[in-house]
Design brief:
The protein has 329 residues and is mainly alpha-helical. It has one domain (43-308). The chain has 11 helices and 7 strands. The protein has a 3-stranded mixed sheet, with no helix packed on it. Strands 3-4 form a two-stranded antiparallel sheet. Bound molecules: 2-acetamido-2-deoxy-beta-D-glucopyranose (NAG) (4 copies). Pfam families: Leg1 (PF05612). Keywords: Signal. Residues 1-33 form the signal peptide.
Length: 329
């Protein structure tokens, strides 16, 4: 006990969260490339700019007694996501002794690429004046993660998982693809009830957990790992299904190969997360360390050029294989 608990600093806390939250995290890690202006920091394990936000809703600007959030701004979306992670942390204390998810997350973020930028011009929505800029509304990843993160955030308010909000939250809507997205609880409830419901189930499960012990001021909840992963998996699958339908067109990707990869990757990750399949992936989650470091081109389809590492090639082949097997069965 002694050693484990005294090390229960940030890092330990994090690793205990990673198993259940790896999916959320993986979503963010694909977005932003390494800042070309800064030295590559291989030890930076969190999504870019993670440290510069604090996971507190009070960080958002307030106008007319409303908290204003722009879901197409990278930092705002990251903040929403960090708020969700921060609020759910406590329910996962004691998880993930094996750190499977942790490892996955750590490695994925290193291989992040410009997947939130605008196809075909990847300099749009890249870094602006040294900071991250927008998330392109024309990017497939930006679109798909919207359903996961933004709707989950609104559902967290709806289900009162997020409480004590200082002001009412207002998301800044975009006119582009207006009917694809929803920017308020009422709108999301009307348009994507299935995603809202899946998110609500997940939050309600967490909220129903009871403290079973308190060790050195850290309460441990009776969270069942398989159950919580099941709810998270369901939320993920529901959100991804909605998102993929809207973002299957080639114009949302840098190439057809990149589009197919996105589809296969999301499927592969779903398998990894599904509690029924987890035993098979637990030890092989490492395969995900090969998340391709750059956007794929159509030349990559047949020949994986030497600019990819062995691990990246392995991942690309694995996700294709999982997708094929899934298509057959
Ligand atoms: C904000 O709310 C406070 C307290 O309810 C109120 O006094 C104030 O007039 C409101 N401000 C605006 C701009 O609506
Ligand atoms: C993971 O942890 C469990 C319980 O702590 C242990 O039984 C299992 O062998 C571990 N698996 C691996 C792959 O280390
Ligand atoms: C890409 O966008 C940047 C910034 O808007 C612009 O300067 C550049 O000319 C564009 N490149 C192409 C090939 O359209
Ligand atoms: C934390 C962790 O598991 N890091 C691994 C990431 O991937 C590299 C290889 O690409 C491993 O060497 C690290 O151990």
């Amino acid at each position: 006990f002694e050693t484990g608990l005294s090390a229960m600093g940030n890092e330990k806390m994090w690793s205990s969260l990673m198993t259940p939250t790896f999916l959320f995290l993986s979503f963010f890690s694909v977005g932003l490339p390494q800042n070309p202006g800064s030295a590559t920091d291989e030890s930076d394990n969190y999504p870019p700019f993670w440290d510069q936000i604090n996971g507190d809703i009070a960080e958002f600007p307030v106008q007319n007694n409303k908290t204003i959030i722009d879901p197409w701004n990278y930092l705002d979306r990251l903040q929403m996501y960090k708020i969700l992670i921060t609020q759910s942390n406590k329910y996962f204390a004691g998880f993930g002794q094996n750190n499977t998810g942790n490892r996955f997350f750590f490695n994925c973020s290193v291989y992040s690429a410009g997947r939130y930028s605008e196809p075909p011009n990847s300099s749009i929505c890249a870094y602006e004046a040294g900071g991250p800029g927008c998330i392109s509304i024309n990017s497939g990843w930006g679109g798909i993660t919207f359903y996961m993160i933004v709707i989950s955030f609104l559902a967290a308010i709806e289900s009162e998982f997020l409480t004590n909000l200082p002001y009412e939250v207002e998301l800044i809507p975009r006119e582009e693809y207006r009917s694809n997205f929803c920017y308020s609880i009422v709108e999301c409830r009307a348009t994507y009830p299935q995603v809202m419901d899946a998110a609500n189930q997940y939050y309600q499960y967490l909220q129903s957990r009871k403290i079973v012990s308190i060790i050195r001021d850290i309460p441990k909840y009776d969270t069942d790992e398989d159950t919580v992963i099941f709810y998270m998996w369901k939320l993920h699958r529901t959100a991804v299904e909605v998102g993929q339908l809207k973002f299957s067109d080639i114009s949302f990707y840098s190439s057809e190969t990149e589009r197919d990869f996105t589809k296969d990757f999301l499927l592969a990750i779903e398998f990894c997360e599904d509690a029924r399949y987890r035993p098979y992936f637990e030890s092989s989650a490492e395969f995900l360390v090969g998340f391709p470091h750059r956007l794929l081109t159509d030349q990559d389809h047949h020949i994986l050029t030497s600019s990819f590492s062995v691990r990246e090639k392995a991942l690309l082949n694995s996700v294709r294989l999982i997708s094929k097997v899934n298509g057959i069965t």
